[in-house]
Write a structure and sequence with these properties.
Chain lengths: 76, 388
């Protein structure tokens, strides 16, 4: 499983990345957290409001900092 | 930070410390001016104006569904709607300067196309809540309103011009693909959300109510301002307890705090620089006032044009354009050129020109930048004429 965090580097993006890391640790999922910072790549997902969460190439949320619990729900 | 960068900074600081003639009266005076200006901001603007403004910005980023705005900017949206939404949505979508460029390229590539995208890019930074509030507060109501109205009107004109100039290329380009739009389940009714925002804004407005002996109603409100503010504070508290979940309140406080932490250091830095270079209004910093008057005084075509160009290339961190402009105006800058700089400044800077170029390509970026400079000059000229 690949979790991608889309964001150009604002504080909210970092928070989402941290929370994703926590979610992976808590659920013990075998997943890799990758950051996508290139603007054109972000747009290719159709996302305009960062930070966004992409799991296995599917956009799950945009413009929000999800809590570790909310992210865990996607991992199951 | 890379080691060589750190080294460079250390060497730079050393050279400045070694060679600056701190005994020189002009420099002593400029340094003192810088701190006086910082104190003015700390005393006049932080508690009553900026703090409520940060809470409003935090509320917008949490409780207004951005998806519901973005859906009007999609490829299928009606053109007139797309332009109007693009020109005003900066107020909601550009609260954090880091969202302006993604939204812009999203509208360009996946949504309404070049016109609405450039309209958004131009107006966004100028009409975000924080800048409007602080512009009106520090530089005066007239300029605050002129900035918002000018940005909205001219963004539509620039957008339409861009679309017309590149009409052929645009037709061929239209990429397919959808935007990811997240509609949040709305738990509160529109009325409740509306009342909540109304109390937030009312607190900001009434706590800052100024005195005016000539208008009786104005004065009555002035005398009662703390009661009115208190009333809205209590109703806000009531709404928070009644209608909001604990987690929502927490998210709101956290994002308000984030805005403050992100913006205040930059703003204070900008205030120090402005104070050092130009001094408070009525005082002089390191730069001679005659120079300012010569370049951007009055309301000539040259001073408006110069202000637009300078604003377009200079980088202003969020809100720092305001203290810099305050000092410039104090030193003799005309109101027309001031507006020109406000319109061209935050919309463009050398770093963001590079990003825009990577999205639009050289030709379109150049056209866009020229249009911004021309439009800012024209708005400055018109505004300068009206004010006189």
């Amino acid at each position: 499983m690949v979790i991608k965090i889309l964001g150009t580097g604002c504080p909210k993006c970092k928070m989402l990345e941290e929370n994703a890391g926590k979610a992976v640790a808590q659920t013990g999922t075998d997943a890799e957290v990758v950051k996508v910072t290139e603007l054109n790549d972000i747009i290719n997902y159709g996302v305009m409001v960062t930070p966004a969460l992409v799991i296995d190439e599917e956009v799950k949320s945009a413009g929000k900092v999800l809590s570790p619990q909310e992210i865990s729900a996607f991992l199951k | 930070m890379k080691d060589w960068k750190k080294g460079l900074i250390v060497v730079g600081v050393f050279i400045v410390a070694y060679f600056t003639p701190f005994g020189n009266e002009r420099i002593i005076n400029a340094i003192i001016e810088a701190f006086h200006m910082l104190q003015d901001y700390a005393r006049e603007h932080v508690l009553l104006c900026l703090v409520p403004a940060f809470f409003i910005a935090g509320a917008i980023s949490n409780f207004i569904s951005q998806g519901s705005v973005i859906k009007y900017l999609g490829a299928k949206a009606n053109k007139i709607v797309a332009y109007s939404v693009a020109s005003v949505s900066g107020g909601v979508l550009a609260v954090c300067s880091c969202t302006v460029l993604p939204v812009f390229s999203g509208i360009y590539k996946r949504g309404g196309g070049l016109g609405p995208a450039t309209a958004f890019l131009y107006s966004g930074p100028a009409i975000n809540v924080l800048s409007i509030i602080l512009t009106a507060r520090v530089l005066g109501m007239e300029i605050g309103i002129a900035r918002a109205v000018g940005a909205i009107v001219f963004s539509v004109i620039i957008g339409i011009l861009m679309q017309l100039i590149f009409i052929k290329e645009e037709k061929e380009k239209m990429e397919n693909g959808n935007l990811f739009i997240q509609e949040d389940g709305n738990e509160r009714s529109l009325l409740k959300t509306g009342l909540y925002f109304f109390s937030l804004i009312a607190i900001l407005v009434f706590v800052n109510w100024g005195k005016d002996e000539n208008i009786q109603i104005w004065n009555m409100i002035y005398k009662a301002k703390y009661f009115i503010t208190g009333f809205f504070l209590l109703s806000l508290l009531f709404m928070l307890l009644k209608w909001f979940k604990k987690s929502e309140i927490k998210a709101w406080v956290i994002s308000s705090k984030d805005f403050a932490l992100q913006i205040l250091p930059l703003l204070f830095g900008g205030v120090l620089v402005a104070g050092f270079l130009l001094g408070r209004p009525g005082h002089e910093g390191i730069v001679h006032q005659e120079w300012v008057v010569k370049l951007v005084g009055g309301n000539s075509v040259f001073s408006n044009f110069f202000a637009s160009i300078a604003g377009a290339f200079m980088y202003f961190a969020t809100l720092t354009e305001i203290p810099i402009l305050q000092s410039l105006m104090g030193a003799g800058m005309g109101k027309g050129p001031a507006l020109a700089l406000l319109l061209a400044g935050p919309a463009l800077s050398l770093p963001n020109m590079l990003v825009i170029r990577s999205v639009l390509g050289t030709k379109k970026s150049f056209t866009y930048i020229s249009l911004v400079i021309i439009m800012a000059t024209v708005s400055g000229l018109i505004f300068g004429k009206i004010i006189h």
